[in-house]
Amino acid sequence: MVSRVIPVEDFDLVIFGGTGDLARRKILPGLFRRFLSGQMPKTSRVIGAARSDINTDGYRQMIRDAIAEFGGAEKENTAGIEAFVGQLHYVTVDAKGDGGWAELHDLIRFEVVNAFYFSVAPSLFGDLAERLHTYEIADADSRVVVEKPFGRDLASAQALNETLAEHFKESQVYRIDHYLGKETVQNLMAVRFGNMLFEPLWNNHYVDHIEITVAETVGVGGRGAYYDKSGAMRDMVQNHLMQLLCLIAMEAPSEFESDAVRDEKLKVIRALQPVEPHHIVRGQYDAAGDEPSYREDAGDPRSFTESFIAMRCEIANWRWAGVPFYLRTGKKMKARTSEISVVFKDLGHSIFPGDEKRHRNILSIQLQPNEGMQLQVTIKEPGQGGMRLVDVPLDMTFADALGPDAEGAADAYERLIMDVIRGNQTLFMRGDEVEAAWAWTDPIIEGWQARNDVPKLYDQGSSGPDDAMALMHREDRKWRDIKG
Ligand code: BG6
Fold first, then answer.
1. Which of 121, 137, 203, 426 pairs with 356 at a CA distance of 20 to 30 A?
2. Which of 185, 212, 216 best tests ligand 1's pocket when mutated (most atoms within 8 Å of CB)?
3. Which residue among the candidates 105, 178, 240, 278 is catalytic per the annotation?
4. Where are the alpha helices (DSSP H) in 341-430?
């Protein structure tokens, strides 16, 4: 199936931190793919802005190298690369001084869409926003894109929101959570709100529990210093897992429009109950042979930061009262997988003699590595005499069903950047959403600090500490196996 590529409006995108890791690894290779697919207009420009004293030629070479290192099959397209880098520019800018701002002003075309990507430490947001206005570079139509971490608690997130609000309206601010740009995450909404089949069952009458697992095989080596100040709770749960939870649990918005969707997500976060300490298991990966432990990776032999977390949450509203939501995420796990499973209740009574096994319908939605959905259904075991029942998955792996196409293969970042240019905020977090998520997270983290909570060690390549298993076992439930 070939997707229809609709070019976006002409734009100038300025990336502050344009020489940084995110720009080279994700943003520019992603834009290159959009350029090749015909979505990025041939007149649009990307302007790298950073402290480094390189010029436009130097920047173009840097991005050629970045595409060679981080690009996919498209990195063989040398003619395409040359055409793309011809649309790149570079300005040396001093975020805290006057250097480069007048030059940036002269470079920008004000008659096209202007977007400013703050791929820098949050402590610089205020300086950048202020100078964009002092030098009359940004106006009431400009868009500003900011990255996580958006604060490290409610107070710091509020301060960041206030800083941005001094210079930009909420409708100009695009807070990225790259999980919202993943194809299957958007598919979650399509599945829920585009089918008659699921909605009548999507509540506490029919759903036993919901599980969200985001497991990674990588450790924190290389970014240990950052990670050790965050831990899995701030790095993954407060944002990515919370967003998945919202999309699974929210009511249908009246239309697929940014504020309508975000209003519904916000209601879910506000209905989340405080989590009891015994409903949370924190873990840290242990050393394994030559593989360093979490503490070695973090560079702190006494670190109490968690690289794994499993928790049981509840949403206090009519739809979900009494349905546990089990969340789990960790580094150095046995496989890389992100999966959401909706486990339906038992039938309650079987009409088939001798059938004592518990049969449950499970809808599982895989975000990565293989995007798809399976619905576990119970059928008669083929070829057997009598009525022997067996559970089988109705499988829909999207690549099999739809074939690889340009849109499906797109990385989350490129999809989200195109949405910024289109002016569509649906897949971006609103300020009040981020604050509500921190308001729920803060007491949990404060509780650990007050109790000097020590994470449990777990083996690399495992499913996390044994206590995480017990979290579900003691309620006669079981985590799904972590399979890549
Ligand atoms: C980032 C986290 O936001 O998401 C990382 O900071 C994590 O720690 C990453 O590895 C996971 O993203 P993905 O797209 O690889 O699942």
1. 203
2. 216
3. 240
4. 398-402, 412-422
From first to last of its 484 residues, the chain has per-residue pLDDT tens of 445 678 899 999 999 999 999 999 999 999 999 999 999 999 999 999 999 999 999 999 999 999 999 988 888 999 999 999 999 999 999 999 999 999 999 999 999 999 999 999 999 999 999 999 999 999 999 999 998 889 999 999 999 999 999 999 999 999 999 999 988 888 899 999 999 999 999 999 999 999 999 999 999 988 888 899 999 999 999 999 999 999 999 999 999 999 999 999 999 999 999 999 999 999 999 999 999 999 999 999 999 999 999 999 999 999 999 999 999 999 999 999 999 999 999 988 888 887 777 789 999 999 988 888 899 999 888 886 778 888 998 987 766 666 655 344 468 899 999 999 999 999 999 999 999 999 999 999 999 999 999 999 999 999 999 999 999 999 999 999 998 7
Ligand 1 center to 332 CA (angstroms): 13
Helix (H, G, I), strand (E, B) or coil at 5: coil
445 near 234, Cβ under 8 Å? Answer: yes
In the structure, which protein residues have their CB atom closer than 6 angstroms to any atom of ligand 1? 216, 235
240 has catalytic annotation? yes
pTM above 0.90, yes or no: yes
> Ligand 1 centroid vs 405 CA: distance in angstroms?
24
Distance CA 223, CA 77 (A): 32
Ligand 1 midpoint to CA 338 (Å): 11
Report how far Cα 39 is from the mean position of its chain's Cα atoms. 23
Atom of ligand 1 nearest to the CA of 239: 3
